[in-house]
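#struct-pred
JK: can someone run the complex with alpha-D-galactopyranose? inputs below
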Amino acid sequence: MKNTFILAFCFSAFFSFAQKKDLASTPPMGWNSWNHFHCDVNETLIKEIADAMLATGMASVGYEYVVIDDCWQIGRDENGILIADRLRFPSGMKSLADYVHSKGLKFGIYSDAGKKTCQERPGSLDSEAIDAKTFAEWGVDYIKYDWCHHGFLKAENIYPIMGAELANLDREIVYSVCNWGWGDPWLWAPDFAHLWRTTWDVEACFDCKGNIIWKSVEEIIDLNMPLAPYAKPGAWNDPDMLEVGNGSLTEDENMAHFALWCMMAAPLMAGNDLRNMEERTLEILSHKELIQINQDPLGIQAFRIYQDPFFEIWLKPLQGGSKALSLFNRSEETIDYQVNWKDLLHLENVYQVKDLINQRIESSTEENLKLSLRANSVLVYRLDL
Ligand code: GLA
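RT: done, structure tokens with the ligand placed:
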């Protein structure tokens, strides 16, 4: 542990100028195994998910990373190289990455900045260089880097070590910091990482409260929203992966969860079983106009322009002077509301207005809009000049 302190100090001093790779100019999109499958991962599943990403059309709307989360690793060999569980991944990680690449997709993997992962598998602490090299040799394109079993180390000293190793590789790997917002990663991670988790793990519950470890969709929103000033191309707040289609959210809640992640310029990592999902789940995850808002090149995270305990209005400026506006009913009852565009947004120009969720062209910002919002639901409007 003493060595690690010295190493961490030397690395962070020495590598603080290593340039991170120019990646993730828009929020990364893909799929991650954790929310639905937890430790039950194997190569057949990952191949089928890659196949499903194409067959469902999700790849064609922008989903590209197929990420295996915790539990793929079983130990290290005599040279210290990580070994994938041979029973679950008999063909090995290189072959699996080749398969994912053969589909035109990208391959992601998980490790941990501590001695062990959160599920007690080998972590990368003190093996950063060899692990980064191994991941590159396997053809990894994305690393999610967790924060269990780190002892008394400080995240801001340890995360740059892997960042520097990745920056020095002859391979482009997106670096996803996953330390749950501890120690304010938005202040130090942008220098060497492309995204950083801002909260504890999401749970498939829209508005439950009080669990210390898991956070509901609404709790996550409240933690992630104030961090809007830190989001920018190549450096994203990550309010955790999507729970859309994972069972306990209503249709309105699934839509609200997805739409609000799009508004927050959040990474869109689907967390459901893509091989077997309801049509409505696929429609929500593949909503092209919401995804376009998420992927807008300006990379601005929405901010609140109105907030009371039951009702919020968010604004996300878009390229070319366009705007996305979402109205969010957090109450248990339907809310009726009239939008006076000019007053609300202090508009000088006239904009065309489209309701993206109901696919309806409204007249323009010249006319007030009367609307009705069901409990736990959102409406998203796109305003174009
Ligand atoms: C942590 C992370 C999760 C997941 C698990 C795996 O809890 O926050 O997203 O990666 O570890 O063990």
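RT: quick notes.
Residues 61 and 288 are 7 Å apart (CA to CA).
The longest helix spans residues 2-15.
JK: thanks, will look after standup
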